[in-house]
Amino acid sequence: MTDATRPPPPIKTPCIQVCVVDGESGLCLGCYRTLQEVATWTRFSEDERARLMAELPARRSRIRPEKLGMVR
Fold it and tell me: Distance (Å, rounded) from C-alpha 48 to C-alpha 68?
């Protein structure tokens, strides 16, 4: 298979297929991204995606625990 016919590598994503946006924080309850980040994820460079993925765990604290219990 040549480079021209080889499919591109899959894009890394934090998505866990729980797509519910918390109106209070503006974050997805599944991956902690904003709607804007979800919508433009494929346009980010690999470095930008890696930087954002490193930030996501800290965002969890911006969502009230009782809301997280609904989806986990």
Answer: 26
Burial class (CB in 10 A: 0-12, 13-18, 19+), 46: exposed
Q: What is the pTM of this model?
A: 0.84
Tokens of 60: 């969890």
28 beta partners: 21
pLDDT in tens, 2-17: 677 888 888 999 999 9
- What one-character-per-residue DSSP string does 13-42 give? ----S---B-TTT-BBTTT--BHHHHHHGG
CB atoms < 10 A from the CB of 54, how many? 9
Nearest in space to 33 (alpha carbons), one of 72, 12, 60: 60
